[in-house]
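lol forgot to send this yesterday, sorry. struct tokens for the thing we talked abt
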């Protein structure tokens, strides 16, 4: 996110200096599409019902991973 913010800031600075020209309407449309696609991806990826349907105790696995990670770290 830091890198994306830095790139956006650089582009806005270059536009202010009139080195480049940015079509803000196209930028809004593209960013809305990217955000919608990312939200859809995360909805499909993190459906907890699917993981529990496989018989995987999700909370137990997360807890065990957290404990092991903290004790070895």
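and heres what i got for the seq, position by position
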């Amino acid at each position: 996110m830091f890198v994306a913010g830095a790139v956006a800031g650089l582009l806005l600075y270059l536009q202010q200096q009139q080195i480049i020209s940015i079509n803000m309407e196209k930028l809004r449309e593209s960013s809305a599409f990217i955000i919608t696609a990312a939200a859809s991806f995360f909805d499909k990826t993190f459906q907890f019902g699917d993981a529990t349907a496989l018989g995987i105790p999700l909370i137990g696995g997360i807890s065990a991973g957290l404990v092991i990670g903290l004790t070895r770290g």
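The chain has one domain: 2-72. anyway ping me if u want another try
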